């Protein structure tokens, strides 16, 4: 007697269907799970047995049968406890304790508690996307995950609280209506905690952050302690454009894999802001592990990754950022294969100019030796600095600026300008036919075609390349930043003033 049900495995951030085959053979009682299960999957037999018993059905240990559960494809490693539900239903079908039903159009996800209740599962959103793609009709999930499952139209999401309720639904004894589709507009509106108007002074830094947000450029802020670097970085997400549904689905898949989506907020409605501590490991930052999972750079996808005191991060960790900063993705290679995670984020880095923090401060003397200052600043390699489009120094905030009652621009006012610039970029990239959102994502050939300079700007750029020995990467970074500055002014061509401002933000890496 055999039965087959379906569940899912998460590979990277994508779901793959898993066939759960249950066979009851003649022999002494045994319960074996095969198909490269991890420890959590192997322990499923104990959870399933108790849940079936406490739901009023005959458990496996009460039947003198040899039970074999195969998770196919058998050469793909399986992890986690979300196979419990599919295994339990498969066993009940094979032992003929429930009526036969059409199982090939249903996916089961959920961990079983010993009393038969169904616990929250991770990876429901990728499973829903896969179910739609593979034309499964039903996605049966824990009731706590129902909003997440109903984000994808075309799949009927059924939320159940316990195994007994699911059995009654499958036998037609109880009707459970599929959850209505949920959109971004239906979700609770959340505001950013910090507004740009709350930051006193630092107008030049605010301008640089506006350019970075508009074109998706990476930025480095250097300043003495208390100059406002952290506060500015935390305020940056408040001026970014509202996240679109396509972007939200991209980001929400990553958060779903980690189990970070709440039952009341099944989609990421705000652009992410991630700020890992400088003690974070390389795997924590870029992703990986024996079962590869996305890291902080992927959790910051379509948002902001803030590295405070970037010079305090281990050099090997910082150098691991070079490829994702260039490509907008990170590929993790392991013996069993490779997994690619999206990682298109705005890197905001902050650091002091020296170990004591006061090198170059006009009011407080630096106590560091020249060797200590040089060693500290060399913690950021040239290739990494080359990938930071905008580099600015923040002066000390004066007393008059701290006490002023004059209100600076709010995040909403800045966002209006930024939205116009993003709209210009969106219309431009529609003609290219590539799914990109910002100027920073352009290839070198696209940059040459789109970033046309007038005669004065061309002359200025040539002079800068010859005098500062700019790299080819820096050349394209400057053009992209100048294009963003021109977009903010709604100008068709890049003028000398746009290029001059972009060049001013490159002096750190070229000095």
The overall average pLDDT, rounded, is 90
Helix content: 25-40%
SSE-based structural type: alpha/beta
Number of strands: 18
Indicate the overall shape. Answer: elongated
> Which topology of the largest domain does CATH recognise?
Rossmann fold
CATH superfamily of the largest domain: P-loop containing nucleotide triphosphate hydrolases
The tally of domains stands at: 3
- Note the quaternary state here: single chain
Can you name the CATH architecture of the largest domain?
A: 3-Layer(aba) Sandwich
CATH class type of the largest domain: Alpha Beta
Radius of gyration: 28 Å
Task: Please provide a written account of the structure.
This protein has 511 residues and is an alpha/beta fold. It has 3 domains: 2-182, Ribosomal Protein S5, domain 2 (2-Layer Sandwich); 196-407, 3-Layer(aba) Sandwich (Rossmann fold), CATH 3.40.50.300; 442-510, Helicase, Ruva Protein, domain 3 (Orthogonal Bundle), CATH 1.10.8. 37% of the residues lie in helices and 18% in strands. It is built from 22 helices and 18 strands. α18 (444-450) packs across α20, α19 runs parallel beside α21 (496-504) and α20 crosses α21 (496-504). The chain is elongated, with a radius of gyration of 28 Å. The model has no long low-confidence stretch (mean pLDDT 90).
């Amino acid at each position: 007697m055999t039965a087959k049900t379906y569940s899912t495995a998460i590979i990277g951030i994508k779901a793959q269907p898993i066939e759960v085959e249950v066979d009851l053979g003649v022999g002494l009682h045994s319960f074996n799970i095969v198909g490269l299960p991890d420890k959590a999957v192997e322990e499923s037999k104990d959870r399933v047995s108790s849940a079936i018993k406490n739901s009023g059905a005959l458990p496996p240990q009460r039947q003198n049968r040899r039970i074999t559960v195969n998770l196919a494809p058998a050469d793909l490693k399986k992890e986690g406890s979300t196979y419990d539900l599919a295994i339990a239903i498969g066993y009940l079908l094979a032992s003929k304790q429930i009526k036969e039903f059409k199982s090939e159009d249903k996916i089961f996800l959920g961990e079983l508690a010993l009393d038969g209740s169904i616990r929250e599962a991770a990876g429901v959103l990728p499973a829903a996307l896969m179910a739609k793609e593979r034309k499964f009709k039903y996605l049966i999930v824990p009731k706590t995950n129902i909003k997440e499952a109903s984000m994808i139209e075309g799949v009927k999401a059924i939320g159940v609280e316990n195994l007994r309720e699911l059995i009654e639904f499958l036998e037609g004894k109880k009707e459970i209506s599929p959850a209505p589709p949920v959109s971004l507009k239906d979700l609770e509106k959340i505001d950013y905690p910090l507004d740009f108007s709350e930051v006193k002074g630092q107008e030049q830094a605010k301008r640089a952050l506006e350019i970075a947000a508009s074109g998706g450029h990476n930025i480095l802020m250097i300043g003495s302690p208390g100059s406002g670097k952290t506060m500015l970085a935390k305020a940056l997400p408040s001026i970014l454009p509202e996240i679109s549904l396509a972007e939200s689905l991209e980001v929400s898949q990553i958060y779903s894999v980690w189990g970070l989506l709440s039952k009341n907020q099944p989609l990421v409605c705000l652009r992410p802001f991630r700020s890992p501590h400088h003690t974070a490991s390389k795997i924590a930052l870029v992703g990986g592990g024996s079962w590869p999972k996305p890291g902080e750079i992927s959790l910051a996808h379509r948002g902001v990754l803030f590295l405070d005191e970037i010079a305090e991060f281990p050099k090997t960790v910082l150098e691991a950022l070079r490829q994702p900063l260039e490509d907008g993705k990170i590929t993790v290679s392991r013996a069993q294969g490779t997994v690619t995670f999206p990682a298109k984020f705005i890197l905001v880095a902050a650091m002091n100019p020296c170990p004591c923090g006061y090198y170059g401060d006009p009011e407080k003397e630096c106590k560091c030796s020249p060797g200590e200052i040089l060693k500290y600043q060399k913690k950021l390699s040239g290739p990494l600095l080359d990938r930071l489009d905008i580099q600015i120094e923040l002066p000390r905030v004066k007393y008059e600026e701290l006490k002023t009652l004059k209100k600076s621009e709010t995040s909403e006012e800045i966002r209006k300008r930024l939205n116009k610039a993003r709209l210009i970029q969106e219309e431009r990239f529609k003609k290219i036919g590539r799914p990109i959102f910002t100027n920073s994502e352009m290839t070198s050939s696209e940059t040459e075609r789109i970033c046309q300079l007038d005669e004065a700007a061309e002359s200025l750029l040539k002079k800068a390349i010859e005098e500062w020995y700019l790299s080819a990467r820096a050349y394209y970074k400057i053009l992209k930043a100048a294009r963003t500055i021109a977009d903010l002014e709604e100008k068709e061509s890049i003028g000398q003033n746009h290029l001059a401002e972009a060049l001013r933000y490159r002096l750190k890496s070229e000095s």
